[in-house]
Amino acid sequence: MPRPALLAVSHGTADVAGARAIAALVERVAEALPDVTVRAAFVDVQQPDAASALADIDGPVVIVPLLLSSGFHVHHDLHGIAAARADAVVADPMGPDARLADVLASRLRGLDRDGAPVVLAVAGSRDERSLTDAEGMASLLGERLGRPVELAYLAARQPDLPTALGTTPDAVVATYLLARGYFFDLAERLSGEHPLTPPLLDDLLAADGIPSPLVELLLARYTAAAARLR
């Protein structure tokens, strides 16, 4: 019996480098699952949209959010389109997860600022579930680094990034974003003179642009959700 298809759904971005990085991540996932049909879709900005892409796939489908936390896009958009099909299921979002903490920690090592206070910059959402996820990710990164990590939001919540950096003037900023785009540009502006890590997917630091923990994480999300279909 064929394994369920995998529909990888990201937010979408107009940034060329960001879009290229997301596409490369989906390609790596497809290479790791040669017996699975893997497709990409988006909830905004890019095409195909998630609903259209799902309609084009026959048979069981696991929708894997390429999104770092729960929120409107996961619970309204993705669960909304899956609800109309008995053979579709939505996997958990990417975060929080210890593998993301590993990638964040590796980005911070690239700044060569061991021991400096860390502010984790997240996109932010009004959905309360995203707050729990952001706090969980800050806790995991703190455990990984062995020191506290402060949270800051780029939109929707407080403290915003300038406020958080105002109370920790020697801090470095860990970017909790998947790829380059609007929010990374905003983080660069708001960070000022503070060192800022690149996004989780960034071809400036990794040889192939795709850290293997991110691929492993998505494979795990797919496998767990596929088991629910069976």
Task: Provide tags for this entry.
2 domains, Rossmann fold, alpha/beta, 7 strands, 8 helices, 4-stranded parallel sheet, elongated, 3-stranded parallel sheet, 230 residues
Q: Brief overview, please?
A:
By secondary structure, the chain is α/β, with parallel strands linked by helices. It has eight helices and seven strands, in the order βαβαβαβαβαβαβαα.
Supply the CATH architecture of the largest domain: 3-Layer(aba) Sandwich
Discrete helix count: 8
The share of residues in extended strands comes to: 5-15%
CATH domain fold name of the largest domain: Rossmann fold
The description of the largest β-sheet is: 4 strands, parallel
Overview of this structure, please?
This protein has helices at 16-32, 50-55, 72-82, 98-109, 128-145, 161-167, 182-191, 212-229, and strands at 5-10, 38-42, 61-65, 88-90, 118-122, 149-153, 172-176. The protein has 230 residues and is an alpha/beta fold. Strand 5, helix 5 (128-145) and strand 6 form a beta-alpha-beta unit. 47% of the residues are buried.
